[in-house]
Amino acid sequence: MTLSKVNILHIEDNEGDIRLLKELLNNAREGKYKITTTVTLKGGLAQLADNKFDVVLTDLDLPDADGVNTITRIQEQEPSVPIIVISGQDSEELALQVVQKGAQDYLVKGQGDGLLICRAIEYAIERKRNEQGLSYLANYDSLTGLANRLLFRERLDRALIRADRNKTLVALLVIDLDRFKNINDTLGHDAGDKLLIEVANRLENCTREGDTIARLGGDEFTIIMEDVKAFEDAVKIVDKILNQMKNSFDLLAREIYVSPSVGISMYPLDDTDAGNLLRNADSAMYSAKDGGRNCYRFYTEDMNKKLLINLNMEAKLRRAIERNEFVLNYQPKFDMHTQELLGAEALIRWHSPDEGVISPALFIPLAEESGLIGVITDWVVQEACRQNSLWQQEGHAPIRVAINISPRQFAHENIARRIFNQIICSDLAPKYVELEITEGALMDDVEKSNEILKELKDRGIHISIDDFGTGYSSLSYLKKFHINTLKIDQSFVRDIMEDADDAAIVSAIIAMAKSLRLNVIAEGVETPEQLNYLAAKGCNEAQGYLLGKPVSAKEFEKFFDNKSETSAIKLAKSA
Ligand code: C2E
Ligand code: CA
Ligand code: CA
């Protein structure tokens, strides 16, 4: 029992009942209760407005009120106070109604002693506390204390009504943290949580009283700005947010920087429906992300169309992952001089039940945008390693399996470790794995790229630069990069025989690779002429339809141990 007194408001017009309750409570727990009495509901409501009570005991039969409506009026005045009805009527039906209206208990006058009433009071207080705890849980995000999605929707609906009445605008902001997932993955969830809490604090510092900040889940926050008169009002707040976020976050004694991408939609200019407004702000946010991150965008209409198409595909992609609709095909790579099979490039195929086989050129960009690429690459790495290890167990001469790494993914700091762990789990020696990375992916952040490359290469993984010649690698970088192979883009190979420029580029790339002591492979080789030309220039590896198309794992076995005579003969002729 606590020592502080329980503050009771007793609303009762019968003198006898007032005195009786005082006596009963005093006899049961002396000095425990401080009782304030009023004889009318009006007086009771005035008391509730001025003072804080722990519980209200009320009759339903008062000079200025009658029946269960009494409860509603008390609740309107003070929603958080527990209510016990003490009534002259011994009616189960009324008791039920009273509780349904939100009172915590129903006692009948003259029944039970003081102890029973004391206990009823304690229970009522406790029950009310629990109810409020539950409603808190239902409406607020437990991590940050911000409004959750449910409360957000309620507040948004109310904000739109108020805006109509006051002829003002509502700005809806959606804020997403760039690379949050990255931080979560590398520093751990505790650090991620801490970051979200700190972001919530900073957002609170940027907004005005009356604005609602909510966390919709993950690292997605929204702000409902009311009483907006012009776009500039919203811009002011967004500028503040972007500024606040520029300061580093202290996580695990490290200084971490995160930048937000902000999308904004305006009511009633963009849409009058709350759900659409949120969707619009969302697509504006994605467009901000595309536009280089750490910036904001207002919603425009055609943005929506683009997103709709993508959303459909994204849902299908998610299902495809769950339902195992992906398969890997393998295309052989050969040594030009020895005609030996060196490796297989794993190329993903999506067997969609609705659309048939879908090219990776179509869905990989979408997977990159939606962040699903991580899961897909994980699957590709695991499956390719599993297959290659199986081939070795079956007694075939060991080859390397080449995996395409999407440019967007390469920037992730932990990609080296992530891939390496998966290789280790597959029982395949890392030297039998090759990663194909495009030039562009490496040039985004040269220093960081090279660190990752070094880590991979130190672990024995083979690195190729894919589509070489199409990007903007400068020679000086090429020298520094920790790589093994340059893969000449097929667009140059295609026109080698017709286009003198392309022929010159190809010879230059081969010569350069040689001087840097790098392997060089030509992809997209389709004719014997192309193969001869490449061989004459000193290209040491080749891949293309002429030597072997991408095929299923089973079919690929024909290339092992020089069993594919056609490939070998074509290679021999060119040598
Ligand atoms: P890429 O890495 O440049 O792959 C080579 C593409 O050229 C493959 O197309 C292959 O089937 C095709 N090809 C091979 N030899 C010839 C030839 O002689 N002539 C012609 N015309 N084409 C040839 P595919 O399989 O449709 O893949 C397209 C692109 O999709 C790939 O280009 C790669 O960037 C991406 N991709 C494929 N699988 C994956 C994957 O598992 N992960 C990622 N991130 N990207 C993938
Ligand atoms: Ca490739
Ligand atoms: Ca390529």
Q: How would you portray this structure in words?
A:
It is elongated and about 115 Å long. The strands form 5 sheets. The chain has an 8-stranded mixed beta barrel with strand order 15-16-18-19-20-21-22-23. The protein has a 5-stranded parallel β-sheet with strand order 2-1-3-6-7, sandwiched between helices. It has a 5-stranded mixed β-sheet with strand order 9-10-8-13-14, sandwiched between helices. It contains 23 helices and 23 strands. Helices cover 49% and strands 22% of the residues. It folds into 3 domains: 6-139, Response regulator (Rossmann fold, 3-Layer(aba) Sandwich); 149-299, Reverse transcriptase/Diguanylate cyclase domain (Alpha-Beta Plaits), CATH 3.30.70; 325-574, EAL domain (TIM Barrel). Helix 7 runs antiparallel to helix 8, helix 8 (189-206) crosses helix 9 and helix 15 packs parallel to helix 17 (446-458). With 575 residues, it is an alpha/beta fold.
